């Protein structure tokens, strides 16, 4: 194998191990064994576990950021639901590593890992704005989108802790949460109200946004 | 000064400095100068900056956890609004330190600091459950409360980044967000619907929950 090929293989092996267990618990010896090479050879390609962890996290971050990319076709609610499915696929595949990373801790809190987390959040933020047809978000829209992204993270983390709610329910719920947070903001601000009206006017009667309204009316609170 | 008195004084001085600037930027020399003692004397009481930081964070955590304590009197929405005001008072007073801590980073991501953050979240969680009259929360209620707590954190962090929205607006908005997230969950689950009905039935016509409904109806989306 060439140098770059070997590096990529090691990153893949490490990412797989870091995804299945907390990165703190994964040793270089284990990575070497899984890759079928010696421990010194691992160090030949990566100076230490942190640099291998950061390379694996970089690959995972690019993967996750890519999952937010969604064609600009069809109702907004349906697009967001497709993104949520891909997001939970990722969380499902990388559970323990995702939890350890997002909960912070000594091994994972380097400035490089924080920058990677921020890059994924930024990619998600920019994707959502592009679907809303907004280039320069006013502060209240920025707040709704960024705080909803953090809500999606915490929802995923809570789900991973025991998986006591079916993930399909949470995927729909997060789409509904987005509409609900936007509606609360619209209740406080005229520009957000205009945006919300534009957001829902093209939504079909059987789409996720209309479904929420129907469910709330049926609830009769 | 006695040993314990001196320690408490140093913690107070350090907390003040760690609150005003990112803890990374605060030196032991500065803390010594602010306390009016020599650098070696600081080390006599605390082995290093991390232990002093952790002691200051412990005091701040206890302060913040205490702000969630609210008498069980009057409408739920009004109680939560009072808590949100005290929460933003805290965030306002400790802005740079709060941001640095919650955004993670090499100096602040120790397991002791993470445990302190979790203890505050747990105190907030238990307070909210007690106001809802629930001792053993089912998974969906736990999700709503815990994810709303993380929403309050991210809202405060986004607010600190430029303070472009009046904090009084965000305090009310977070109360409304709680009702909105509970309503979305109620739209998906019968037990949550029962809880939501109980939650709003005693709310007065001029309380925050009714205000949200009124605003949304006026919006006519």
TrEMBL record, chains A, B:
DNA-binding region: 27-46
Stretches assigned to the HTH tetR-type domain: 4-64
Keyword annotations from UniProtKB, A to Z: DNA-binding, Transcription, Transcription regulation
Superkingdom per UniProt: Bacteria
Gene Ontology MF terms in the entry: DNA-binding transcription factor activity; transcription cis-regulatory region binding
Protein name: TetR family transcriptional regulator
Annotated organism of origin: Streptomyces fodineus
């Amino acid at each position: 194998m060439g140098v770059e090929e070997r590096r990529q293989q090691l990153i893949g092996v490490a990412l797989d191990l870091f995804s299945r267990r907390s990165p703190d618990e994964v040793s270089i010896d284990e990575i070497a064994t899984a890759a079928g090479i010696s421990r010194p050879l691992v160090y030949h390609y990566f100076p230490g576990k942190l640099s291998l962890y950061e390379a694996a996290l970089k690959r995972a971050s690019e993967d996750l950021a890519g999952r937010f990319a969604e064609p600009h076709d069809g109702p907004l609610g349906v697009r967001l639901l497709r993104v949520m499915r891909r997001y939970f696929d990722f969380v499902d595949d990388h559970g323990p590593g995702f939890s350890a990373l997002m909960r912070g801790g000594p091994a994972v809190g380097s400035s490089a890992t924080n920058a990677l987390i921020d890059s994924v959040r930024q990619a998600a933020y920019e994707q959502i704005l592009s679907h809303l047809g907004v280039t320069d978000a006013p502060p209240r829209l920025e707040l709704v989108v960024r705080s909803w992204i953090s809500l999606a993270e915490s929802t995923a983390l809570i789900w991973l802790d025991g998986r006591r709610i079916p993930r399909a329910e949470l995927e729909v719920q997060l789409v509904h949460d987005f509409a609900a947070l936007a509606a609360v903001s619209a209740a406080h601000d005229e520009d957000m109200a205009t945006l919300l009206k534009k957001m829902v006017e093209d939504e079909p009667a059987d789409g996720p946004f209309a479904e929420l309204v129907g469910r709330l009316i049926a609830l009769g609170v």
